[in-house]
Amino acid sequence: xxxxxxxxxxxxxxxxxxxxxxxxxxxxxxxxxxxxxxxxxxxxxxxxxxxxxxxxxxxxxxxxxxxxxxxxxxxxxxxxxxxxxxxxxxxxxxxxxxxxxxxxxxxxxxxxxxxxxxxxxxxxxxxxxxxxxxxxxxxxxxxxxxxxxxxxxxxxxxxxxxxxxxxxxxxxxxxxxxxxxxxxxxxxxxxxxxxxxxxxxxxxxxxxxxxxxxxxxxxxxxxxxxxxxxxxxxxxxxxxxxxxxxxxxxxxxxxxxxxxxxxxxxxxxxxxxxxxxxxxxxxxxxxxxxxxxxxxxxxxxxxxxxxxxxxxxxxxxxxxxxxxxxxxxxxxxxxxxxxxxxxxxxxxxxxxxxxxxxxxxxxxxxxxxxxxxxxxxxxxxxxxxxxxxxxxxxxxxxxxxxxxxxxxxxxxxxxxxxxxxxxxxxxxxxxxxxxxxxxxxxxxxxxxxxxxxxxxxxxxxxxxxxxxxxxxxxxxxxxxxxxxxxxxxxxxxxxxxxxxxxxxxxxxxxxxxxxxxxxxxxxxxxxxxxxxxxxxxxxxxxxxxxxxxxxxxxxxxxxxxxxxxxxxxxxxxxxxxxxxxxxxxxxxxxxxxxxxxxxxxxxxxxxxxxxxx
Amino acid sequence: xxxxxxxxxxxxxxxxxxxxxxxxxxxxxxxxxxxxxxxxxxxxxxxxxxxxxxxxxxxxxxxxxxxxxxxxxxxxxxxxxxxxxxxxxxxxxxxxxxxxxxxxxxxxxxxxxxxxxxxxxxxxxxxxxxxxxxxxxxxxxxxxxxxxxxxxxxxxxxxxxxxxxxxxxxxxxxxxxxxxxxxxxxxxxxxxxxxxxxxxxxxxxxxxxxxxxxxxxxxxxxxxxxxxxxxxxxxxxxxxxxxxxxxxxxxxxxxxxxxxxxxxxxxxxxxxxxxxxxxxxxxxxxxxxxxxxxxxxxxxxxxxxxxxxxxxxxxxxxxxxxxxxxxxxxxxxxxxxxxxxxxxxxxxxxxxxxxxxxxxxxxxxxxxxxxxxxxxxxxxxxxxxxxxxxxxxxxxxxxxxxxxxxxxxxxxxxxxxxxxxxxxxxxxxxxxxxxxxxxxxx
Lengths: 613, 442
Description:
The complex is a heterodimer of chains A (613) and B (442). Helix content of chain A is 38%, strand content 21%. Chain A is built from 21 helices and 23 strands. In chain A, strands 21-20-12-11-1-10-7-6-5-22 form a ten-stranded mixed β-sheet. In chain A, strands 13, 14, 15, 18 and 19 form a five-stranded antiparallel β-sheet that branches. Chain A is elongated, with a radius of gyration of 30 Å. Chain B is 24% helix and 23% strand. Chain B is built from eleven helices and 23 strands.
């Protein structure tokens, strides 16, 4: 890691977009369940979408890469999680008031202002992920801020919006979406590009995450919070990085992105110096029709073509490493792949290794007019795809001569680099959602939210008091399970020092054993501790329940019976003691605990036997 | 429209909707484009579009200051598109009457306006240019719920005109709510058709990429350009998917869902054809072909006809009301096979004397069923026999709405006695002699 001065010098700019699903009883604009319950699919709906005439009548360069053009969209429909609103067959219902209140509470805690009246907008979506072809979204807060290590980072806007569908599969003909997710209330919190280092990006994301958990009812589990990072350096370009799995890898991935942009700028300078140019596609099918290169041979045999293009002045630069194991050639290949082909071959690679003969290489070079300092690329595949792939590849190559392209990129958390997803789309087109009336904000209620702003210091000291263990208390503060912890302690009255170790240590242990504890719904977790409070199950019994609940459809009380976890307590425990009459207290303790480990609370037994610790 | 105090403030600054303005309220300053006030909103709230594309509302207070920053910029203009006539393609006419279909949204203001120029429609649905040469007529711009028989007459004339001018088929775009009334009216008013008359519409507005309008227009154009059907019908989505449309006989179609794109269903009938947007037409049941006879345009209509629904506890005085208002005909939507109350515990609720009074007063009274599916029958139950004795005519398997339109048509073109005789006889496919097994819940 570098110091702050280094990033300042680079012109490093960074902002976050945090998306968090809210934990409401219903979706944002209908009464469907926002929980992704397992249930049989009812069927598919197939739709086509088309771009409606644009507002400004001009097409930005990103749209030509829209791979969904002409593709069919298939939406999977389920009973309890999908209704006609989700599949664009019924107008939206009123805005979910529970979600709005959570969002306003969060806005108050981010010291944001809220508009007098909220207007629901339709944001045009062209990838098919929304059956209506737009996402409903509203601005609920502006001009807020959050303190991160004593520094104030501006939050210019806070939005409440619909979650999109989940993608199931995609090929050149159709994209299949799972609509269950669609319409889950989502809060989006944007920071200004005021973050001054990769490490600070992580800290800001953590701080916002913590605030969300402290303030609002938010969903927990994988995919319920997403952190997108906008990064740029001077002379580079704004890149939006999506798909961070955890915050720990965020700084390193941002570092990689800085390196990538720096290296692309170096390549750009060399290309400009060499007066580089990008050639036109040339059909090389006749030259390579009987090549030994399997990849090409297979496509030609299947009726496809081979296209090549000269890249004047690119020699050596296609193979220039811009990130670990990633080259300019990799970037060009990723663009070409958008057209549905497997990839490209370029002349900075070991062509003999592919199986090209010397004659083939010479003939290709001749056909393309390749000279000393030049490079070339080859693409094979079905005619239409191959032509499109070459167009995309050449677009990327020509941009290398004068800029770092603005892109949406994916965080590769394994290799700690970013990968191309698609060009960064221009501003979203938005227009009013005329099916929903504007919503006047209840100023009195918002005033109360402002008065009730959470103090992290106070939460910290309360946790310490409840959990009685400084490490566990701090861990709980930052844990995604904090809201669940508060709910359990608040509703069941089970003390924090019992709840925290189970949520933090026991669940982690079970998770490591491959048990899907994150699938246990909050209600079931709550029920488990309610049973504990009612003396119906022991602490060891809780662990057993958590181990079996993910695989069981039974409710907690039934599961206790099925697993034989009923606690033996009070009179029943006294009765049990009678069976061991004649034995020493220590023997009784040992034998009973070994036989009824799951059913008897050790402390209760010791107290009954009046054994002092 | 904004509230008077806002309008006054705006007028003073010469600010119009679409202008970029600055609003200062206390310590807060907002900049953006002034939007029109949504119909449903509070009128004393300014709505502006911020630079991030979002609209917000700012409540008026006397201390609010407004300043104009710049004037309205031009909103979207359709690219110039030259519509070339292709001699190899058939000519069809499109008669735009209003409704969700064929309108587009102004993304700046959210306002909706009609597409009436062929180039606008072809820009949105360019496939039509490959199917047929299109001529567009726009005789009216009216929401479906505002339609009356006067509009039916106008549309009928426009269709007849289009055929006269050489169209081989005609597409009529129409709001969906009362499309099945209009399709019935056109079926009666336009007889001996030389080609197909295809009504179509949209359940989702065409501002969104997911609108059903596009496929409905394409399939309707295919039918108008290619099919040898010589009937009026409705062509809309057959399922919730964008796979194919059904063409349903105009007198047998009914809107059976408030919002789904496959809302239109045939009742007591099968669809005539299945049309795919790729161009294929599969004929599913018998239909009329051009007879070679001259097109007969009969636009007479007697508007003093009413549809009356019978239900438990319903007060038959409603019948007397129509009689007293000089109505010429009534269609009763009875229960089951076509029943009304005959011997209720409170005799005031028996409909028989009232129906008899109506018939005696010279009204034509028809009986249909609120079951929609199936046929009325006057012989099975005593109640029905009484109804018949009172002079009511059972309308076979005709839909109540169709019977209403037919009665208005008959009374507007024929003598009362003729109308009475024709009501239960099939004219254009509205009554089937047989009820086939698979005509239920199609």
